[in-house]
Amino acid sequence: MIQLKKIVLLFALGLSITLNAQNTYKKWPDIIRKNDASWFGTDEAKKIAENVLLYQRDIGGWPKNIQMQQELTPQQKKDLLALKSDLHEITTDNGATSQEMLFMSKMYAQVKDERYKESFLKGLNYLFEAQYKNGGWPQFYPLKKGYYTHITYNDDSMVNILNIMKQVGEQTDYYSIKPSAEIVEKAKKSFDKGVDCILKTQYKQNGVLTAWCAQHDEITFAPANARAFELASLSGYESTKIVLLLMSIEKPSAEIVTAVKSAKAWFEKTKITNLEEKRVLNDAGKVIDKKMIVTQNAEPIWARFMDLDTNEPFFCDRDGIKRKSLDEIGSERRNGYSWYTEAPTEVLKKYDAWAVKNGTKVSALEKKNISLITVAQDGTGDFTKIQDAVYACPAFPYDKVTIYVKNGIYNEKVRIPEWNTNVVLQGESKEKTIITFDDNFSKISLGRNSTFYTYTLLVEGDDFLASNLTIKNASGDRGQGIALSVVANRAKIANCILLGNQDTLYLSGKDAKQYFKDCYIEGTTDFIFGGATALFENCEIHSIKSSYITAASTPQNTAFGFVFKDCKLTAEPAATDVYLGRPWRFYAKTVYINCDMGKQIKPEGWENWSKPEAEKNAFYAEYNCKGEGFQPTKRVKWSKQLTKKEAEKYTIENILKDSKPNWYSSSTTVK
C-alpha cells in the first residue's frame, strides 16, 4: 500500500497544475531542446532547475514522464524531499535521466551553480552503476520485476545512454560539465561495452544478421517480450537509432561495419512502399482512427513489429494475439500506438556516404561512368556533405564528374585530392551555396607552415571547374586563414565569391595555370598569393583594410604570374592605403590591364617587402587602367607601364597556354 501511494504521488505531481506551466513549451523534452542557450540563464530556467534537483533521487536518476516545468506547492516539494532516498521507479525509459542530465548541462553552461554540475555527475554515476556487466542496460534501475530487467532498446533508451557515454568519452563540447580523466576513461569503457552488447544482440535470421528487437534477455541476449501487445519481434523503429549510433563511430571495427551493412540490407528488404497511413482527427485534433491505404509508389515505411522468422508485420491488442493487419485490433491500441515508422529512411540517406568513408562499395555509385552527384542538406541528394561526395568520385576519370551542391551553408573543410581529377563543383547559387570553415594559423598551430592547413576548400586535382559558390574562411581577422587553396593545373573558378581576411586565396602547383572569371574576392593582407600563373578576368577585388592585395611568388623564368584584366579594385571606406602587391619571392610577377582602380590604391602602387633584390627581379606592370587609384607617373620607379605592343602579349591563349588547348573555355554549368 505504501508503494502504491508513492506511485500515485508521482503521477499526481506529473499531471498537476497544468494551467500554471511557465514556459511556452508545454512538454518537458521540448523545453530542454527548443530553448536557445541564453534562456538557460533566466530566472524562469533557474526556477525549473530547482524542480529538477528535487525530482532527482539520491542514487542519481530520475522517474519518467514528469513535467518538470510545472510549479510545485510547498507540500509537493516536501513530498519530493521525502522520496529522495526511495529506490523505486527510477529509469531511463521515455528519455528520463538522459534529458534531465542535458538540462543540467545547459544550465551549468549559463550559470556556474555547482549543484548543477553535481547533479549531472550523479546522473552519470547512476548510468555507470545501472549497466550490466555484459554492456546492456535495464529499463529500470534499481531493477524492477518483470520485463523491465531486459536489455532495453525500446524508445531509444540504451542508445540515449550510449550517446552520453560517447560525448563524455570523446570529451566533446556537447556537455558543459567536464568530468575528471578517471570518469572520461570510465565512459569510454562503458561505451565500448555497450557497443559490444549491441553487436551480440543483433538478431540472426537463418544465419543472416538483420536488426534488433525492442528488448533482449539480459542473460541470453535472445529477443524478449514486454507488454502484452509488445511481443518479441524485429523492430523497424528501435533498430534505426542503433544503426545511426554505430555509423557515428570513427574508424569502426570490421564487426561494426558488418553490423551496419547487414542492418541496411534488412531495412531495404523490409520497407513497405505500397501503403500510407491515413489518420482521422476529431475537432480537437486528436486521432480517433487510423487506416492503412493501398497506394502506389508511396514513401517507404516500416512496421514497428516484424516476425522474427518471416519479417512479416504483425499487430497485437492487449490480449497478446498476433494479427496481420492494423484494422484487426481494437481502436484503443490501434490509435494509441505507433505501429509504423519512417525512421529507417535516415539510415538509408546516410548510408552511401558512410559506406564510401569506411571503404565499402556503394551500389548507387558503382557505375564506372558516374557523371553527376548531388549534395543536399535536406537529404534529397546523394549526400548531405560535400566531402562525402568527393569520396564517391572515381579516381582519374575519363570524363567530367559534377558535384552539384544545392543551396545551404556547408560548415566543412573540403579537400579534392590529386587523384580526383576532372571534378566540377557547381553550386545552386553563389549567394546561397556556401562552403565555410574557421581555421586560422593560431588555431591550426602546426608550426611555421600552419597557414597552408587553414583552407576551407583545397583543390589538388587537375582539370577542376567551380561555379556558383561562396567559399569562406570564417575565422575573422585573426591572422592567416585561407578560403580557397588551389594547387592544381587547369583550374577554372567562375562566378564565385571568395571571402576571408589575410591570405584568402592561395594559388600554387608546378607549372600550374588557373583562371578566375566573374568572381568577387575579398580580403586584407596578401589575400591573393602564391606561385601559380593565374588570370583574373572581370573580377571584383575588394580590400577590407589598408594593406596589400597580392603577394606573388612566381618561379624564375615563368612567363606570366598574376594577371588581372578588366577587373575592378574596390575597398571598404576604412581602407585608404592599399598596395597593388609586394613580392613574396624575388621573381614575383603581377600585371593589371584595363582595370578600374579605386582611390584606395596608393600612388606608388607597389612595395618591395624590404627586399632590394626584388626591385631588380620582380616584374610589376600596368596597362590602360583607369580610376582615381591609377596614377602611373607616381608609381615606384622599378615598376613598369606596358606599351600597347607589350600588352598585346597578355592574351588568354598566351597566359593559360597548356598541353590541353582551350581548357579554360570549358563550361562550369551542368547541362
UniProtKB/TrEMBL annotation:
Residues annotated as the enzyme's active site: D526
Record's signal peptide: 1-21
Catalytic activity: [(1->4)-alpha-D-galacturonosyl methyl ester](n) + n H2O = [(1->4)-alpha-D-galacturonosyl](n) + n methanol + n H(+)
Keywords for the protein's UniProt record, in alphabetical order: Aspartyl esterase, Hydrolase, Lyase, Signal
GO cellular component terms attached to this protein's record: cell outer membrane
InterPro entries: Pectate_lyase, Pectin_lyas_fold, Pectin_lyase_fold/virulence, Pectinesterase_Asp_AS, Pectinesterase_cat, Pectinesterase_Tyr_AS
EC number of the protein: 3.1.1.11
One Pfam family hit: Pectinesterase
Pathway info: Glycan metabolism; pectin degradation; 2-dehydro-3-deoxy-D-gluconate from pectin: step 1/5
PROSITE patterns: PECTINESTERASE_1 (PS00800), PECTINESTERASE_2 (PS00503)
GO molecular function, one term: lyase activity
Ranges of residues in domain Pectinesterase catalytic: 373-658
Top-level EC class: hydrolase
Biological processes per GO annotation: cell wall modification; pectin catabolic process
Cited PANTHER family: ACYL-COA THIOESTER HYDROLASE YBHC-RELATED, PECTINESTERASE 53-RELATED
Family of this protein: Belongs to the pectinesterase family.
NCBIfam families attached to this UniProt entry: pec_lyase
Name of the protein in question: Pectinesterase
Organism: Flavobacterium hibernum
Lineage of the species this protein comes from: Bacteria, Pseudomonadati, Bacteroidota, Flavobacteriia, Flavobacteriales
